[in-house]
Amino acid sequence: MRGTSSFLIVANRLPVDRVGEKQWRRSPGGLVTAIAPVMQRRDGAWLGWHGAAGEELKPFDHDGMHLIPVPLSQLEVEFYYEGFSNATLWPLYHDVVATPVYSRVLWDAYKAVNDRFARAAADAAAPGAVVWIQDYQLQLVPAMLRKLRPDLKIGFFLHIPFPPAELFWQLPWRKEILEGLLGADLVGFQRPGGASNFVRLARRVLNLPASRNEIQVDDRIVRAEAYPISVDFGSLDQLVREPHIMTRAKEIRAELGNPDHVLLGVDRLDYTKGIGQRLKAYGELLAEGRIEPGEAVFVQIATPTRERVEEYIRLRNDIELQVGRLNGEYGLFGWSPINYMHQSYNREELAALYCAADVMVVTPLRDGMNLVAKEYVACRHDLRGALVLSEFAGAADELKHAYMVNPYDIDGMKRAMMTAMHEPPHELGRRMRSLRRRVATHDVDRWASDFLKDLEA
Ligand code: ADP
Ligand code: G6P
Predict the structure, then answer these.
(1) pLDDT tens, per residue, the chain with 457 residues
(2) Which of 47, 85, 171, 438 is the most buried (most CB within 10 A)?
(3) Single pTM value for the model
(4) Which CDD domains does the entry link to (predicted)?
């Protein structure tokens, strides 16, 4: 029996969050915004885990999207999601900034869950359908699915960096992962470097004939290309032109005590984001008196994430200790140099925060793209505001007029923050105009349509 979906997205997570017992709401974020319209146009379906352990749900429709939940047991959440995906692959693919865990038990769970996703996709896809598999949690699905359904067009996009051969080589299952990805017709990466790492590894590990961006697998050609993901520029730009967002931005600044400078960080509380490094740089500026008492507030939004994984528990303790110390040491009655929030926010509140911030500080040690940087740019039609950006974010390839930093270089970050805080308006405007031009012309819609055009070519 064949399914009926002619366009299928396969991702670890469904694009909805549960509100209360039985209700769902579309999850925020660029991927959903980009893909939802394509799904609506093409009779699409989205296959993914709904976020709760040990619960089986029937397929359902939401917001014009057909959603097919894939269940995960408690143990699979632990071994496949928290384990192999987020304690093995995540740190390995992010330059081993934390030590990856290599465990056969975790690998077995990863294989079993990938197999479940592949079977579910094979059941849902119509003859000749286009199936687009997303991200590092599902790298075995392309080959598994091709075996079950050779009639399908299979695309894969990796949202995180694909590591250099020297690091990927550590993985005891390097051969299986490469073979898994090579089940796709087109493998997409954030940066050209990721695509060439992949081609080089296919050549070295599997001895496959390959050119710059094509790999020969049996009688097929697999293409590897870069498609930098982006944000929905138009809708963010429109949102921040609404008066209530500007009112809220002013309110936020007032609530912070109307300091001369508001610096902002918005990240999942992840060790790849360089939160500790940026707070260290800011702390030294306070210690040296280069930022005076009351002059600035650093707002750090740290979204809760993967809270049962050991490295994340450790990171949270470290960051909260660091924030507590800096506030304790330099704060005054009525002024804390850091405003730290371990919470989620809705799109409007985030947009207001971006508008309230003079300096957006994005300093990952390694990041596939970093959408926060592009969201900030999309929200600054006033041409004010400065973006401090790590060279190690994928976004650095495109956002060349940001204040670039190496997050390992604390003195360099201090200099960049100071420059950004004191830059004259005409220079801020010049830089922001160029950043906005790039994001406006390379938005998320273009990302999705470029990828799908190439997949279907
Ligand atoms: P990552 O995918 O590693 O989390 P990105 O910067 O690429 O990093 O994407 C993060 C996304 O999550 C952005 O769209 C951002 O707006 C959103 N986000 C980050 N923090 C919050 C928060 N506290 N509340 C709501 N959304 C958030
Ligand atoms: C990154 C990954 C996504 C993941 C997201 C949130 O953006 O590339 O695949 O969905 O982080 O992480 P979570 O573990 O909560 O799904």
Answers:
(1) 579 999 999 999 999 988 888 899 888 777 888 888 788 788 899 999 999 999 999 999 998 889 999 999 999 999 999 999 999 999 999 999 999 999 999 999 999 999 999 999 999 999 999 999 999 999 999 999 999 999 999 999 999 999 999 999 999 999 999 999 999 999 999 999 999 999 999 999 999 999 999 999 999 999 999 999 999 999 999 999 999 999 999 999 999 999 999 999 999 999 999 999 999 999 999 999 999 999 999 999 999 999 999 999 999 999 999 999 999 999 999 999 999 999 999 999 999 999 999 999 999 999 999 999 999 999 999 999 999 999 999 999 999 999 999 999 999 999 999 999 999 999 999 999 999 999 999 999 999 999 999 999 9
(2) 47
(3) 0.97
(4) GT20_TPS (cd03788)
- 5-229+445-456, what's its fold? Rossmann fold (3.40.50)
Q: Which atom of ligand 2 is nearest to the CA of 306?
A: 14
ipTM for this prediction: 0.99
Query: How far apart are alpha carbons 214 and 199 in whole angstroms?
Result: 7
List residues near ligand 2 (CB under 6 A): 13, 135, 159-160, 305-306
Nearest residue by C-alpha to atom 12 in ligand 2: 305
Domain parsing of the chain, residue ranges? 5-229+445-456, 233-441
> Ligand 2 atom 9: the closest Cα is on which residue?
135
> Which ligand 2 atom is the nearest neighbour of the CA of 368?
8
Which of 31, 268, 344, 377 has most ligand 1 atoms within 8 Å of CB, for mutation?
268
Q: Which residues have CB under 6 Å of ligand 1?
A: 28-30, 266, 268, 301, 303, 344-345, 350, 369-372, 375
**Which atom of ligand 2 sits closest to the CA of residue 86?**
14
Q: Using CA atoms, how far apart are residues 294 and 291, in angstroms rounded to an integer?
A: 8
